[in-house]
Design a protein that fits this description.
Structural class: mainly alpha
Largest sheet: none
Shape: globular
Helix content: over 70%
Order of helices and strands: HHHHHHHHHHHHHHHHHHHHHHH
Number of helices: 23
């Protein structure tokens, strides 16, 4: 007599079996996320890390962007301008006081050269950064009466500026090391939670106070960032067990010091507008410009994702002395990015109404040139990929310095005459000059033609003109919505082609 089969071996006889049960099991597993998790587990660690780091960047920027409507309704334009001006000065001061060490490139070089003693290297760099930034901070306090004529910040913000340079770099060093070694989980948690808690505490502090809201906002964020930075400073020093290493300190100084002009020029190019608007126009105008500039800079997040996918492809082709498909790939990606920039320009009035009160709407004409500048920046990013490949960093620094000087001169001439909107157009002109210079440098250094410069400049010029022309139809909502609808329809029709561009990598 044959033994009875177990219930699960009898085919579809019991009431829970059958093809519908199998389908339910499949849908249930999808609902539980098993399919997604299995695919995630099979991904190489490098791809996992890239996705996690990108999501962390999007979330942190998204948190800041979503908190803007709250701050613009709790703070007046002058206070917003003061915070924006402080952020710009902080970028300049950090570049000098930290010797550009907080840029990933400098630390990555050090980590690459020390496979066996990275912890010792990093703890020594933390020690160097603390001592150097403290010395620069003391010098700044001594020169404070003289500098105040130009910087024009409250004394409290001066102190926070100095403390920021001392306490926050260790967190950045830890993040750079974790990213370098593809340890993405901790980086994701720390960066997102720090941004989220910082914004929540800042909103609560500003809402509970009635005066000096600019100082309150900066101090509340510092109350979260500084203890975290102190923790990582102690952690890295104890882990590496080296605070002072003569060779590392000397190497760091000699390597970082010549890079200051390049990084400083980049910071001036992106941050001098708010500083000069506050001095040549008003702090309120600087506040409006800061908020509206954030609308246009949404494009930087989009281009960051695109550049992250295209850079390895270009390097792969160049390492094989080939340009197969590179130009066509870049043309398609720039076209997609250009349509995204055009959409941002078209929706600028609606986005600004969400981000701030009606008084901010007069800054809507800042968005098209800012978006155009970001569109042009994708050109010099592509060109600089080739230049970096051939290690022509000196030429890159020269181009950045020239563009920064042009930006400052044009701001000084045009802001008093035409107001804060002129600063957006001077930024656009500076980025155009930067792109042209990078193209010339690339042509002189490349061993074979990677891109068709004429085609890239041509498509960018058309898209740039479209972005700028949008400002003429801001009053005609139906026309803007019709164009946006057309762009959406084109995107839906070509969705498979667009997705395939990113799946290739």
């Amino acid at each position: 007599m044959k033994p009875k089969k177990r219930k699960e071996e009898r085919g579809f006889n019991h009431r829970n079996d059958g093809p519908h049960s199998v389908m339910r099991d499949d849908f249930s597993s999808i609902f539980r996320g098993n399919v997604v998790m299995n695919k995630w587990k099979r991904l190489p660690i490098g791809i996992k890390a890239s996705i996690a780091f990108f999501l962390a960047t999007v979330l942190t920027k998204g948190i800041t962007f979503l908190s803007t409507p709250i701050f613009t309704r709790l703070m007046n334009e002058s206070d917003m301008g003061s915070v924006g001006t402080y952020s710009s000065w902080r970028g300049i001061y950090i570049t000098i006081s930290n010797l550009s060490l907080t840029s990933a490139g400098v630390i990555n070089v050090g980590l690459a050269n020390r496979n066996k003693d990275r912890d010792k290297y990093l703890s020594s760099v933390v020690g160097f950064c603390i001592i150097w930034s403290s010395i620069v901070g003391v010098i700044m306090l001594v020169l404070c009466p003289i500098l105040n004529k130009y910087i024009q910040l409250p004394d409290t913000l001066y102190v926070l500026l100095i403390l920021h340079a001392v306490f926050t770099p260790p967190t950045t060093f830890w993040i750079i090391k974790e990213r370098y070694e593809f340890h993405y989980k901790g980086v994701f948690i720390v960066t997102v939670l720090q941004a989220l808690i910082g914004q929540l505490v800042s909103i609560l502090a500003v809402s509970l106070n009635g005066s000096h809201l600019d100082i309150i906002r900066v101090m509340s964020v510092a109350a979260i960032e500084y203890p975290i930075g102190l923790f990582f400073a102690i952690y890295l020093i104890f882990k590496g067990k080296v605070f002072y290493n003569r060779f590392t300190w000397k190497e760091t100084l000699l390597f970082s010091l010549p890079l200051i002009p390049h990084y400083l020029s980049s910071v001036v190019l992106t941050g001098s507008d708010r500083i000069m608007i506050s001095q040549l126009d008003s702090q309120s105008s600087a506040g409006i410009y800061t908020v509206v500039y954030g609308v246009g800079s949404i494009g930087t997040i989009i281009w960051g994702a695109i550049q992250g996918s295209v850079t390895p492809t270009i390097y792969d082709r160049m390492s094989n002395h080939s340009n197969d498909g590179v130009n066509q790939l870049c043309l398609k990606l720039i076209s997609i990015f250009g349509c995204a920039c055009l959409s941002i320009s078209l929706l600028a009035p609606e986005v600004i109404r969400i981000l701030g009160p009606y008084s901010y709407l007069k800054g809507v004409y800042v968005v098209p040139p800012v978006v155009g500048a970001i569109l042009i920046s994708c050109l010099y990013n592509l060109f600089s990929i080739v230049t970096f490949y051939y290690k022509k960093s000196g030429s890159i620094a020269f181009a950045s310095i020239v563009a920064a000087v042009i930006n400052v001169i044009l701001n000084y001439i045009l802001i008093p005459r035409f107001g804060f909107v002129a600063a957006a157009y001077t930024t656009l002109v500076s980025y155009i000059v930067l792109a042209i210079m990078h193209f010339i440098i690339m042509k002189k250094t490349q061993e074979f033609e990677v891109y068709n410069g004429g085609q890239l400049f041509g498509i960018c010029t058309v898209l740039l003109l479209l972005c700028i022309t949008v400002s003429l139809i801001y009053e005609y909502c139906w026309m803007r919505y019709a164009i946006i609808s057309m762009l959406i329809i084109i995107g839906v029709i070509n969705r498979k082609t667009i997705l395939q561009l990113f799946r290739k990598r």
